[in-house]
Amino acid sequence: MFKKVLIANRGEIALRIIRACKELGIRTVAIYCEPDATARYVKKADEAYLVTPGPLRGYLNIYGIVELAKNVGADAIHPGYGFLAENPQFAEACAQAGITFIGPNANAIRKMGLKDQARKIAEKLGIPLLPGTPPLKGIDEAVAAAKEIGYPVMIKAVAGGGGRGLRICYDEESLRRQIPIAMSEAKKAFGDERFFIEKYLERPHHIEIQIMADRYGNIIHLGERDCSIQRRHQKLIEIAPSLLLTEKVRAQMGEAAKRLAYEVGYDNVGTVEFLVDENLNYYFLEMNTRIQVEHTITEEITGIDLVQNMIKIACGEPLSIKQYEVMLSGYAIQCRINAEDPLNDFLPSTGVVTAYYSPGGFGIRIDGHVTEGYHVPPYYDSLLAKLVARGRTWEEVVRRMHRALSEYIIRGVKTTIPLYIKIMEDEDFRKGNFSTKYLEEKLPSLIYSEEKDPFDLAVVLSAAIVAHSRV
């Protein structure tokens, strides 16, 4: 087993990795930029080092991070998600330095990182695909292709991810207008402005299959997650297992994901994403060659620690569980608690957390890094915490999540908590009547009033009493 792991990330995922390492008896090294100097993960790691310059570049400095790992005696690096997690050059730099990259090999990352190449591999294996194109050279070529495919179509960045570089077009006018915007966004986010177009399904479910593979050709899947509740193609609420899939379709999608992983020589934890229509036809979307933000709910319904398994696989251990041993038990929901204002087009909210009280109780889990006094910086993703509820039935887990959200107090910044409370109360959600269009269609009916609650009143009264006592 590794003796020391450097974590090339920040926030809640860094803290999650630290906890996994501690349970395995592994020392941890955190890195941080100036805005994270007092962050919880920095305090919890065995060692922590400032990386510069600026609030972002330090987390993206491949050779600086690898050199630091060598200097502090780390024998492995865990990239978390985002930043360098799906960068094949980072995996290669680790290998060249004699440091283990806790993730898949660089070749697998490279093959699945470009969406057009991933489509070709899926097509070769006979995995269903939506009609689409290879990378296109310009607007006129895209217009001609869209006429053949049929509107609506989606513009997709070749090197895309996280909803960036995606645009939905219902006619030629919008296609011509949106392509330059999508190209510019992709260039800024990925350094690659290439794009292709794909047929757009109007109301699909976004279903992803969790896979786990070792270095000896053993591959299993751990069921699916439904990530359909999104805003601007970025996930907000995830559910495991899906309310839509049958056992037969689950098995088919799981086998498709395993075939894809085997074809590219995949050797760690990863996720294969699909779109599924109302008739349970499924279509390959992409593969994420890293741990997912929503890995928590798979852990809750399987009892399998995905982060620890990433470490064990990277250390050369074979999978300790067979496919027939994977059992899905109950339901789990994850709500991403973001510092955003749903009443103002999900505008990011920054500032100091003036009060923090997390919920608890049976079946509740929180993966987060926020405390009272935490300063929410403007430089990073708006995720503050992941609230997870587990229950024996769908009805039970929805009620439990509603109760936990109602207990959750974060003051000083706007959050998505009030919106999620309304979603848990929504009849369509409770019946499982949702798709990727859910939030777009339902948001006007989910609007809530920002009334002061008893906690706010107590804070005000307490401050008034203290002030009066000093007079």
UniProtKB/TrEMBL annotation:
Keywords: ATP-binding, Biotin, Ligase, Magnesium, Nucleotide-binding, Pyruvate. SMART domains: Biotin_carb_C. Signal peptide: none annotated. GO terms for molecular function: ATP binding; ligase activity; metal ion binding. Residues 1-444 form the Biotin carboxylation domain. Residues 119-315 form the ATP-grasp domain. The keyword ATP-binding applies. GO terms for biological process: malonyl-CoA biosynthetic process. InterPro entries: ACC_Biotin_Carboxylase, Acetyl_CoA_COase_biotin_COase, ATP-grasp, BC-like_N, Biotin_carboxylation_dom, Biotin_COase_C, CPAse_ATP-bd, PreATP-grasp_dom_sf. The keyword ATP-binding applies. NCBIfam families: accC, PRK08591.1. This is Pyruvate carboxylase subunit A. It comes from Thermodesulfovibrio aggregans.
